[in-house]
Amino acid sequence: MTTSSRRINYQVDVQFGDCDPAGIVFFPNFLRWMDAASLNFFVSCGLKPWNELVKSRGIVGTPLLEIHTRFITSATFGQTLQIETSIVEWREKTFVQKHVVTRGSDLICEGSETRIFVVRDADKVGGLRGIAVPEDIKILCTGPGG
Amino acid sequence: MTTSSRRINYQVDVQFGDCDPAGIVFFPNFLRWMDAASLNFFVSCGLKPWNELVKSRGIVGTPLLEIHTRFITSATFGQTLQIETSIVEWREKTFVQKHVVTRGSDLICEGSETRIFVVRDADKVGGLRGIAVPEDIKILCTGPGG
Amino acid sequence: MTTSSRRINYQVDVQFGDCDPAGIVFFPNFLRWMDAASLNFFVSCGLKPWNELVKSRGIVGTPLLEIHTRFITSATFGQTLQIETSIVEWREKTFVQKHVVTRGSDLICEGSETRIFVVRDADKVGGLRGIAVPEDIKILCTGPGG
Amino acid sequence: MTTSSRRINYQVDVQFGDCDPAGIVFFPNFLRWMDAASLNFFVSCGLKPWNELVKSRGIVGTPLLEIHTRFITSATFGQTLQIETSIVEWREKTFVQKHVVTRGSDLICEGSETRIFVVRDADKVGGLRGIAVPEDIKILCTGPGG
Q1: Angstrom distances, CA of residue B12 to CA of B44, B70, D29, D51, D122
Q2: What is the pLDDT of residues B19-37, one digit of tens each?
């Protein structure tokens, strides 16, 4: 059974300092904004930010395992971008979050991120341990009619 | 006939400010370093940096069309990373550059970038036009025995 | 005669990736936001952004000559900051722009920037030449009753 | 009695992505490099990095209280900069660290930072408490003949 994820929008006003000598957004900034959109998605769905969630549930964040990004058109400063974020797949332990970056009707780029919820675990290398996606979080992120 | 690309190393000393509240490298910085490693590859192969090449040949740079990155292990400040960069595929107009980021014998992450050489073209949207990879550049980037 | 500058507000939502391993904003990001607030001030006063102004008036931007910043309290992600920007002094060729960064009633930091309007000048080192602050810009930036 | 500080050099290779649409280094990057040079100074003097020092001595770092930076000449990618860092004043609780950024014989910019050593203190706002500069650290940072 497929459940549909909520779709959350995050707005970015591109700044002068986000752009490179070619006059366009230096691409790692798109990844930075996708990371912000990723957390914004969960907070918009009702989760607390990581600095609070770590206290109540031990969840430190959702580190990135993989990212695949396609760049279609460039953007520059003075422009406003919209990032639409959704979860396109829940796997056993990981999930795939998708970010579609647009400027009006122009598609700028899109990224597909594989992430995992982690908790602190002193016994693990790096001190973090992946957990299965908590069911209540999955429900929070599921849209009406899902 | 396959030609093998040169393999160029680029070193990164991870700084405190490159890391996030989880204490590990904030991932867009890996993409920033791969971009630096990409240009470093061409300069190490004998090309001039973009700000000089634009004058002699009109080449503005090699914008990114697509990037696919896998993150295996985290890294933190005080550590030294090596990025080994090579070109794994020459296509008609684009090419695929690979970056393998290691810390000693640990694989940290690896990225595969599809890029294209562009020149200024006032008639094009964005003012840039992709060109076929220049043959002399292809030769410069080809390793001995290639 | 003293003229009073307009006061323009710029909002920043602090992101996870803006913070360092101590869990607080990595300070160069405050400078990045002050730079964004600086351009936002001029655009809010009625100027075009630099990429348009360079075409109509040759003005490339307002490079920084000096910055003095005091950090009073730290900030972290999930918080919203306000930056109030004004011009506290017009000198013959330069001007001093002040940014006061607050979170509610908390003063986070404040910065005082000396900047100069520049135009392209191929004869100059760096290709840029400072100009006296244009009178019409000074008027645009002056508040009611100034 | 004045003691002279050691002078430690830190090298920066300016990257394409460090530069803005004007083609020159986006200034907050200079502050980022000064922060790296600040920690590099202490590590070069024999201190452990903060992530190790916090375990042995509780010292979390040296947050910035104030920074004053003057920009003399611009820099661009493909250039190598040297940052010479020293401590110009030890006060009771704080100290002033100076960074001089040069490119060959050109002075690019210089920054003067007021910093303070802090330890974790759960009772304090922000969880950090400033301490007097430890005498052994002061000695480590003092040059021969100091």
Answers
A1: 16, 18, 16, 18, 35
A2: 999 889 999 999 999 999 9
pLDDT tens readout for residues C6-41: 999 999 999 999 999 988 999 999 999 999 999 999
The CA-atom distances, in angstroms, between A142 and each of A48, A111, C46, D45 are 17, 20, 43, 54
Residue whose token pair is 């206290």:
A55
DSSP string covering A84-99: EEEEEEE-SSEEEEEE
ipTM, 2 dp:
0.91
Half-sphere exposure of C17 (CA within 13 A, CB side): 22
Q: How far is the C-alpha of A41 from the C-alpha of A47, rounded, in Å?
A: 9
3 state DSSP class of C116: strand
Query: In the block, which residue shows the tokens 């351009």?
Result: C39
Chain A partners of C36 at a C-beta cutoff of 8 Å?
Answer: 15-17
Subunits next to C (3 or more Cβ pairs <8 Å) are A, B, D
Answer whether 0.80 is exceeded by the pTM.
Answer: yes
Q: Which of B49, B51, B76 sits opposite D51 (nearest CB)?
A: B76
Annotation says A20 is catalytic: yes
Question: CB–CB of D52 and B15 under 8 A?
Answer: no
Label residue B67 by pLDDT band (50, 70, 90): very high
B78 and D49: CB-CB below 8 Å?
Answer: yes
Q: What is the token pair recorded at D34?
A: 């000064």
Closest alpha carbon within chain B to A127: B22
pLDDT of residue C143: 75
Q: With CA atoms as reference, report the closest residue to D16 among B53, B46, B99, B123.
A: B53
Domain chopping of chain C, boundaries: 8-140
Q: Does domain D8-140 have CATH number 3.10.129.10?
A: yes
Q: How confident is the model at residue C2 (pLDDT cuts 50, 70, 90)?
A: low
